[in-house]
C-alpha cells in the first residue's frame, strides 16, 4: 500500500461521511489505482462491517437500558409484568373455581 498514513486519513474521513455502497466504491477506486490490493480492500471492508455491527449492538444495548430505566422511573408495567399478572389471575380463577 502506498503512503499508509495518507490512505488511513483519506479512508477515515471518506468513510465517516459515506454509506456502505460509497465505501465499497472508494475501496474499488483505491484498488483500481493500485493503492490497495483486492485482499486489503476486502479485509478493510470486513473490518468496517464488523466494527459497525459492534457499534450498533452497543447502541441497541444502551437504548434498551435507557428505555428500561425510563419505564421503571415512570412506573409503567412491562410486558413481563403484565404476563406475570395474567398468570396470577388465571391461577386465582382456577383456585376460585375449585372452591365452588
From TrEMBL:
UniProt cross-references to InterPro entries, sorted A to Z: PhaF_PhaI
Source superkingdom: Bacteria
The name this protein goes by in its record: Polyhydroxyalkanoate synthesis regulator
Organism the protein comes from: Cytobacillus stercorigallinarum
Amino acid at each position: 500500500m502506498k503512503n499508509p498514513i495518507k490512505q488511513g486519513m483519506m479512508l477515515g474521513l471518506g468513510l465517516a461521511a459515506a454509506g456502505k455502497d460509497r465505501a465499497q466504491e472508494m475501496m474499488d477506486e483505491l484498488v483500481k489505482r493500485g493503492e490497495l490490493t483486492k485482499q486489503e480492500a476486502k479485509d478493510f471492508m470486513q473490518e468496517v462491517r464488523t466494527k459497525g455491527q459492534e457499534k450498533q449492538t452497543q447502541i441497541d444495548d444502551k437504548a434498551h437500558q435507557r428505555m428500561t430505566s425510563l419505564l421503571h422511573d415512570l412506573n409503567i408495567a412491562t410486558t413481563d409484568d403484565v404476563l406475570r399478572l395474567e398468570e396470577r389471575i388465571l391461577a386465582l380463577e382456577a383456585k376460585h373455581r375449585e372452591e365452588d
